[in-house]
Amino acid sequence: MAQFIDPLFQYIEVVPADDFYPAIERADAAIGDTDPDDVLYLACAIASDGAIWSDDSDFDEQNLVETYSTSDVINSFDTH
Q: Which residue segment(s) compose the domain that 31 sits in?
């Protein structure tokens, strides 16, 4: 299992709170009415110019960052 998980951590970035706080307002405007629990995740992605890996379709309601489902991620490792 580690052979699959370890490579993913090269793409994961920890975003300090001071960095994503300025993006909370934009994230809330984009997704807050749909799911307020997702606002901080979206704010982190905005602040880090990153993407979101989630199977939560609520992220489809925004257009500020790219989103990837688990099947998208698995397919990206397909070497056929």
A: 15-76
